[in-house]
Structure formats: structure tokens, C-alpha cells
Amino acid sequence: MPDDLLDLDYQPHLPPKTDYGIAIIGCGGIVNYAALPTYRKHGLNIVGCYDVRPEAAEKTAAEFNIPVIWRTLEEALEDPAVEICEISVPPWAQMDIALQAIDAGKHLLCQKPLSDKLSQAAEIVYQARAKGVKLAVNQQLRWGQGLRAARTLIRKGWIGRPTDASIQVSVNTPWDMWPWLAAQERLEILYHSIHYIDAIRSLFGDPEWITSRHTRYPLQGVVKGETKTITILDYADDMQAMVADNHYNLSDDYFAVFRFIGTEGVISGTLGAMYNYPHGRPDTLEWSSKRHYPDKRFEAKLEGKWIPDSFIGPTASLMQAIQEDGVPETDGYDNLQTLRVVEACYLSAGENRTVNLGECEAIPCRD
């Protein structure tokens, strides 16, 4: 295999400075089983934590040897050691906390979705820009091992011009892990397929047309929202992408696969995190290129897992943006474009039609 194929460049790049003081705001499950284990692995500087439930903050602090437990949000934001606030709260609570942190001059890493209302997400982005605060959203699947490696191959031209993309997931999701999530009327697209939509945008840009169909499993009980969805993204250059997601596969045949086809080759792989979630397994990746090696198919062994390892990606990108006065890869404004596609999905499903992305303009950030 040639040397440039050996370098799939799928691991996040840490900037020179990584000792920014980080405040953890919200000590729920995703922080404890994904973010903080990864931060500990990379030696990041967690200066304190806060949660509206003091017992949750105490448990997290004990588990990860966090030196300070703030009793109020105000205490956290007034602490001069805090440079970055990582906010991990439900989306309807995020705006109030984010605006206070922005007023305090703290840089932000916000959980996805940035808000459950597009207008509120746009206001967060506007305020961060107006006050010179860097804002990143934790859309970390862009740094998932298989998809990041696929991005490298696409950008090196190994499959030629991309023409078709698909991400298909069919699993049995343990909704009992997130009782608050199961109660949401907007569920699968807003909280799960948003990852796949964002990843596709990172690879291929914004679609022009969106067609999305949503349904429920007949016996899903207290789980309110849509749990089975199929979304088609059509591009102006005839590129087409599909995201199909089923959270009620009660058989023993789970799958979580992606495939990107181009004029010169194909990339395929698995999203290991979705197998036996939350334990998961490493992603797999295969590809072929008739342009360069018409009779060969390559396979890569990828290290790490989407969850938790990719959680360092948005954080490292935010730190680099702070150092260089640049823009994080998952900058708030970019994330508004992902949320526009999400809104288009719900509009399409609600009105049983194909929607032009222009129908779902985010409220301008008052540029």
C-alpha cells in the first residue's frame, strides 16, 4: 500500500496549548461516560464542575478528581480560572446558561442540539459573535474514526467525484438511559440523526432539497417521538445522500453502516459505537479506487471509538480557534446550517413533501 494511503489522518489534532481552564456545566451521563474520560486521557485542565443537582456534581468530581464544585452557576462564571465553559444540559436550558457565560467572557463548547428552537440557537450564535467569544458545538461524529478517515480519502481524490452517500443504522436503542429524551415529541432527527446530517454536511456541504419521512414503532410505549426515519438529501450537482435510522430493531441483526460512492471508487464502513451501545467497538473502513488500483480493495484497522474518543475533536478545534483567533470546525454559525437541515426534515415530514433548504432560513445572526 502506498505511504499516502497509510496516513488516513483520522485522529484529532491537538493544538500546542491545551491547558485552558475548563468548567463543566451539567454533570449528566454524556459528560461522565464520554467527555471526561477522554479529557482525562489527554490531560486537559478541568478546574471545576457545577450541576443544579449538587449530588451529581459531587459524584462527577469524586470520579474524575475535579478540584472545585461550584454551588451556583454564578460562582462558576466568576471564577477567573475558567476560560472555557462546557455546557451539557438539555437544549431548552442551554440558551440561558450560554448567554450568561458569554456575558462573562467565557468561550463555549455547547452540547448538541444547540437549541430545540432555531431562533434561540441563532441568538446564542449572534451574542457570541457580538462579544468576541468562541463558540463550538459538540457535533463530534465529524471526528468519528471511520468518517474522518473517509474524509481524508475523499479529499485526496481516491473515489473521484462523490455521487452517492448513505448512512444506515438499525439497532435497539436503550431509551431507559435517557428518560427525559424519551419524552420528547421531536426525537430521532433532532437528537440522533442530527449527527449523521452534520457529518454529511462536513463531507459534502449543504443540500438543496430535503425529503424526510418519520414514523414510530407500534409498541414503543412511553417513547413519544419519531424513532424510525428516512431522509434524502439532494444536491445541486446531482449528489444524493440518504440517512436511514431505525431504533427498534428487535432482531439479532443490528447494523450501522456508511457508504460513499464516487466516479472512481467507493468507501464503506461501520459505525462501531452503535453496536451494543454504549460499549461499542472500533469503526471499520474499506475502500477501492479504480483510478489508482482497479484490482484491489483496501482495509484499514482504526484505533479508538466514536464514543468516547472523538469527543476530543470539537474541544481541540475550539482551543485552536482561541489560540489563532480563528473559527472552530463546529462553529456555532456552521451548526445553524445543520439545524436548518433538521428543521427542513421536520417540515418535510409534517407536510408530506420535499422541502427546499431555503424555506428553513435560520434567523440571521444580524451580521
Helix content: 25-40%
- Count of separate DSSP helical elements: 12
Largest sheet: 9 strands, mixed
Beta strands, count: 14
- Name given to the CATH architecture of the largest domain: 2-Layer Sandwich
Query: What is the terminal separation in angstroms?
Result: 48 Å
What is the radius of gyration computed over CA atoms, rounded to a whole number of angstroms?
Answer: 20 Å
CATH topology of the largest domain: Dihydrodipicolinate Reductase, domain 2
CATH class of the largest domain: Alpha Beta
Structural class: alpha/beta
Compact summary:
With 367 residues, this protein is an alpha/beta fold.
Entry keywords:
367 residues, alpha/beta, Dihydrodipicolinate Reductase, domain 2, five-stranded parallel β-sheet
Topology of this protein?
Elements: H1 3-6, E1 21-25, H2 29-41, E2 45-50, H3 54-64, H4 73-78, E3 84-87, H5 91-103, E4 107-110, H6 118-130, E5 135-137, H7 145-155, E6 162-170, H8 179-182, H9 188-204, E7 209-215, E8 228-234, E9 240-246, E10 255-262, E11 265-270, E12 284-289, E13 293-301, H10 306-309, H11 312-324, H12 332-351, E14 355-356
Parallel strand pairs: 1-2, 1-3, 3-4, 4-5, 6-9
Antiparallel strand pairs: 6-10, 7-8, 7-14, 8-9, 10-11, 11-12, 12-13
Helix pairs in contact: 5-6, 6-12, 9-12
